[in-house]
Specification:
10-stranded mixed sheet; alpha/beta; globular; two-stranded antiparallel sheet; 388 residues; 13 helices; binds 3-isopropylmalic acid; Isopropylmalate Dehydrogenase; binds manganese (II) ion
């Protein structure tokens, strides 16, 4: 190891498949550490249903402290079917991540939606629609309906949720979205319901005014219901998509359909002194502990974490390794891959590819098409010697 500072990473696996997908992200980060000589310290923390079971709280104060002391946070998923019909239960597992976002000031949720070329077959959309799909969803994360006053009146028979946004809250996320647009294809779409909602009319006014500061950015305004349709009709028309909290939550799962599996989408939540990285997918309780979940979203989130830590080469190495594994036709069951693999096998292969890339680039200075020994062994054990 060199004298580089050790990076502290808070690990919050949470519930369902959270732990098993994060294990794979950790494997890959460890391989990156070995290859690029970085030292990580992983500090575990409880959150969600497991935290409620052990401490009574969805976000124990110790977990928050761990996050505050860390350089970055890797989060899995929270939720439990035990709460599906326990509508009055408090706290709920999801409260953990919501409280954490608020406490750390993570007002910006960035969800890149890119298609892996080799996985076009996975999408239910026609291939012709998928060419050039590369969008960045910028979702406001600490305001709106998620965080306004809510409650019950009339002996529990009348319920209310309030959606509030202030000028400052909208300005900071809108500016970020414009800045992303400047670094990308200079196109921004604000998605709102300004035909109905007052908060949306504030968003629209602020974005209209901000356009003057970014004259090179072309801005479109779409109602959320219309966007739900456009996203499937012409997904490649979008570059940066800016939304409020609730609209962004809904559209991000719709956008996942474009890639073919929710198990592929990573995300970054930023804004405060710390940043948190998490797969867009949830807990998938039916799959928990079965080693069948797709770890690519978690591994992709680790790549975003590396970028955030100022390590773009390392992030690129992760993406390269992922793409090499996918190119071989290997994938978890949700990917309907030619060569099925388990969650942990995928993690092993990506981690191994990270190391193998290093070996190959040392030998030849280039990464050419080849088969990593671990992938070779995997093929052979499943399909016999393929004679490579
Ligand atoms: C997400 C999730 C969360 C959200 C839940 C678990 C509270 O669906 O990150 O998209 O609604 O923000
Ligand atoms: Mn969601």
């Amino acid at each position: 190891m060199t004298g580089k500072a050790k990076k502290r990473i808070a690990l919050l696996p949470g519930d369902g498949i959270g732990p098993e997908v994060l294990d794979q992200a950790v494997k890959v980060l460890q391989a990156i550490g070995d290859r690029f000589e970085h030292e990580w310290e992983f500090i575990p923390g409880l959150i969600g249903h497991v935290a409620i079971q052990q401490t009574g709280e969805a976000l124990p104060s110790q977990t928050l402290e761990t996050c505050q002391k860390a350089d970055a946070i890797l989060f899995g998923a929270t939720g439990s079917p035990a709460y599906d019909f326990q509508v009055e239960a408090k706290p709920r597992p999801e409260d953990g991540i919501l409280q954490l976002r608020k406490a750390l000031g993570l007002y910006a949720n960035i969800r890149p939606v890119r298609l892996f070329g080799e996985l076009h077959y996975l999408s239910p959309l026609k291939e012709a629609l998928l060419d050039g799909v590369d969008l960045l969803l910028v979702r406001e994360l600490t305001g709106g309906l998620y965080f306004g006053n809510r409650g019950r009146k009339e002996e529990g028979n009348r319920a209310f949720d309030t959606g509030v946004y202030s000028l400052g809250e909208v300005e900071r996320i809108a500016r970020l979205a414009f800045e992303y647009a400047m670094q990308r294809r200079r196109h921004l779409t604000l998605v709102d319901k300004s035909n109905v909602l007052e908060t949306s009319r504030l968003w629209r006014r602020i974005v209209l005014e901000m356009q003057a500061d970014f004259p090179e950015v072309e801005v479109d305004y779409l109602y959320a219901d219309r966007m739900a349709m456009e996203l499937l009709l012409k997904p490649s028309a979008f570059d940066v998509v800016l939304t409020s909290n609730l609209v962004g939550d809904i559209l991000s799962e719709e956008a996942a359909v474009l890639t073919g599996s929710l198990g592929l989408l990573p995300s970054a939540s930023m804004g405060g002194a710390k940043a948190l990285f998490e797969p867009v997918h949830g807990t998938w309780p039916e799959a928990a502990g079965k080693d069948i979940a797709n770890p690519m979203a978690a591994i992709g989130s680790a790549a975003l974490l590396l970028e955030y830590l100022g390590l773009p080469l390392e992030a690129a190495a992760v993406r390269q390794a992922v793409s090499e594994v996918l190119q071989k036709g290997i994938g978890t069951p949700d990917m309907r891959a030619r060569i099925p693999a388990s969650c942990s096998q995928m993690g092993d292969m990506v981690a191994h590819m990270v190391m193998d890339e290093a070996a190959v680039s040392l030998r030849s200075g280039a990464i050419e098409d080849r088969v990593s020994p671990i992938i070779y062994a995997f093929y052979c054990s499943n399909y016999g010697d393929l004679g490579w």
